[in-house]
Amino acid sequence: MARRKKIYEGKAKTLYEGPEPGTIVQYFKDDATAFNAEKKAVIEGKGVLNNFLSEYFMTGLTNIGVPTHFLKRINMREQLVRSCEIVPLEVIVRNYAAGTMAKRLGLEEGTQLPRPIVEYCLKDDALGDPLVTEEHIAAFGWASQQDMDDILSLALRVNDFMSGVLYGVGIRLVDFKIEIGRIYDGDFQRLIVADEISPDSCRLWDIETGQKLDKDVFRRDLGSLTDAYTEVAKRLGVLPKGATPIRPTLIN
Ligand code: 5GP
């Protein structure tokens, strides 16, 4: 098979040119990073789990009419996605105070917010993805007012869908980050959910016990990250009971 052209290598994923124009192959690595890559590890099986979980969430979103870049899963670690121009913002939706918001506002982690709060960070690793306001976004032209209306609507629809699906399996969606892609149909542009949706980019707490089932397990040294992600995958039926991602043939 011809070698594929690498387009981009990020912290957790590598992108290759897809088989057809306008497509990209997204490869999920086992690399875990935190605190702007100051903390690093290779966690066997993480890429497989995130590939399956992102497929699960993106497919569900597509099925309820939320546009995403996802086309199909190719194998254990790769998925085919639509090529798009990434809006240079991280869109964060929070239902409960945690992480940087809890710290910034002096809130106890786990405090329920009066309503979902959407925040925007500039995608810039060198600056540590700083929080920005809509005023910055408009003034610097990172997104138009129409884009921001569409992004807010997408973010809240993703939140409603994800909160419901996860609540159904006893998991609280505390917060999450999504990225938005721009695609062009002739003269028209549309915004779609891009990148990935996985426990790498969400905070997921067991509703009964409060146990963390997301990347905070790695960030805060709380145990096995693979066990936490496997638990999420099992509850959602993405992994059959008893299977582990390290023995991939057991996965449907
Ligand atoms: P915080 O701002 O509290 O660190 O993060 C809020 C939410 O967004 C968390 O669910 C966190 O996992 C996610 N998030 C924020 N920044 C990033 C990032 O650069 N990469 C990933 N994967 N998730 C992020």
Oligomer: single chain
Unreliable stretches:
247-252
CATH-level-2 architecture of the largest domain: 2-Layer Sandwich
Helix content: 25-40%
Gyration radius from CA atoms, angstroms: 18 Å
Q: How many H/I helices?
A: 6
**Strand segment tally:** 14
- Report the structural category: alpha+beta
Order of helices and strands: EEEEEHEEEEHEEHHEEEHH
As for the CATH topology of the largest domain, it is: D-amino Acid Aminotransferase, Chain A, domain 1
CATH level 4 superfamily of the largest domain: ATP-grasp fold, B domain
Number of domains: 2
What is the first-to-last residue Cα distance?
A: 25 Å
Bound molecules: guanosine-5'-monophosphate
Q: What is the CATH class designation of the largest domain?
A: Alpha Beta
**Outline type:** globular
Strand fraction equals 25-35%
| Residue-averaged pLDDT | 94
Describe this structure in words.
With 252 residues, the protein is an alpha+beta fold. The chain has two domains: 6-84 and 224-251, Phosphorylase Kinase, domain 1 (2-Layer Sandwich); 85-206, 2-Layer Sandwich (D-amino Acid Aminotransferase, Chain A, domain 1). 27% of the residues lie in helices and 33% in strands. It is built from six helices and 14 strands. It has helices at residues 46-63, 99-105, 134-139, 145-167, 216-219, 225-235, and strands spanning 6-9, 13-17, 23-28, 31-34, 39-42, 70-73, 78-82, 85-86, 89-96, 112-122, 131-132, 171-185, 188-194, 202-206. Strands 8, 9, 10, 11, 12, 13 and 14 form a seven-stranded antiparallel beta sheet that branches. Helix 1 packs parallel to helix 6. Mean pLDDT is 94; it is low at 247-252. Guanosine-5'-monophosphate (5GP) binds at residues 90, 92, 98-101, 129, 175-177, 200-203, 215.
